[in-house]
Design brief:
CATH architecture: 2-Layer Sandwich
Number of helices: 2
Distance between the termini: 31 Å
Shape: globular
CATH topology: Alpha-Beta Plaits
Number of domains: 1
Structural class: alpha+beta
Strand order of the largest sheet: 2-3-1-4
CATH class: Alpha Beta
Length: about 90
């Protein structure tokens, strides 16, 4: 039987996707650009909330290690134009 309590092992460098949620697509795209200014990345519009209050964008890039992945997450999450980063 498979042990489901094992930690997932990520082999770096690794392609990682963040979902970045905010109030305005332009502002979220600007925030992503400010955080990732010199990195190669791709942004794809994901969806709008049912009432249109929120938008989510998927941002995909190569992360070099766990610390790099965490720093990017925290920087995106701390930006005033973003509400949630997944």
């Amino acid at each position: 039987m498979e042990n489901r309590n094992e930690e997932l092992k990520i082999i770096y460098p690794h392609q990682w996707t963040y979902v970045v949620i905010g109030l305005n697509e332009h502002d979220v795209r600007t925030a992503i650009g400010e955080v990732l200014h010199e990195r190669a990345y791709e942004i794809v519009f994901s969806k709008s909330s049912a009432q249109g209050k929120y938008v989510s964008l998927r941002v995909t890039m190569i992360v070099s290690d766990e610390d790099d992945r965490g720093r990017i997450y925290q920087s995106l999450n701390d930006h005033p134009s973003t509400k949630i980063v997944i």
